[in-house]
Amino acid sequence: MSTERRAPLDRRRVADTALKLLNETGLDGLSLRTIARELDVKAPALYWHFKDKQALLDEMATEMYRRMVAGTPLDPADTWRERLLKANHGLRTCLLAYRDGAKVFSGSRFTGAVHAEYMEGTLRLFTAAGFTLAQAVRATTTTYQFTLGFVTEEQGVEPLPGERREGYDMDERARLLADYPLAAAAGAEIFTDWDRHYEESLDLVIAGIAAAYGLD
User: Coil, strand, or helix at residue 6?
Assistant: First the structure.
């Protein structure tokens, strides 16, 4: 009989396992039963930690956030523009690391106060730069929501880097829209070269924030 001891089952271990499975199953295929099987426990054991799938998604999003913060060191000397660029690049990188990563993150509620220190530092930086608190919140949430929405659409076409869903072949799209040449040509701007598209779009959002609030 094996004497190897299992690691104790806790919320973070379950979330870690769920994130590992996410790339295989996608969000729709991820269930507490699937995770329990991977952990070699009975499904009811997980209900001690999570009352339902949304509670699990909350913990998964929290773990994703922990990893994002760990991989995105922020400099107190950042300008507000630099902070928005770093934070949103870090968020996009984090979301793209998982199939349906943006869907997991969207609408989830962080467990505990893991985000508070990061948020506090960013709001202090913005208010010191001349933003009111309300303006700082609008600026940071607008760019956050832009990134989340962008990656949701990006993963709808490419669930993982190098993987492309059926129906997004640009040559086929151009043939179908042959009578609408501008719409056909726009496909390359919408459904390819995601990195460039994201960089240019984020720059537009940040320029709009600067113009709206009269800040450099």
Answer: coil
* Cβ pair 201, 212 in contact under 8 A: no
Dist. CA 94–CA 72, nearest whole Å:
10
How confident is the model over 189-205, as pLDDT tens digits? 899 999 999 999 999 99
What HEC string does 82-113 produce? HHHHHHHHHHHHHHHCCCCHHHHHCCCCCCCC
- Among 123, 156, 127, which residue's Cα sits nearest to residue 140? 123
What is the Cα–Cα distance from 150 to 170, expressed in whole angstroms?
19
169's torsion region: left (phi>0), alpha (psi -120 to 50) or beta?
beta
Structure tokens at 29: 């295929």
The upper half-sphere exposure of residue 105, i.e. CA atoms within 13 Å in the direction of its Cβ, equals 27
Query: CB of 22 within 8 A of CB of 98?
Result: yes
**Global pTM?**
0.89
Inter-residue contact 139 to 209 (CB < 8 Å) = yes
Query: Within 10 A of 194 (CB to CB), how many other CB atoms are there?
Result: 19
Greatest alpha-carbon span in the chain: 71
> Helix/strand/coil (H, E, C) string of 134-192?
HHHHHHHHHHHHHHHHHHHHHHHHCCCCCCCCCCCCHHHHHHHCCCCHHHHHHHHHHHC
> Under 8 Å CB-to-CB from 1, ≥6 apart: which residues?
none
Q: What is the pLDDT of residues 124-152, one digit of tens each?
A: 999 999 999 999 999 999 999 999 999 99
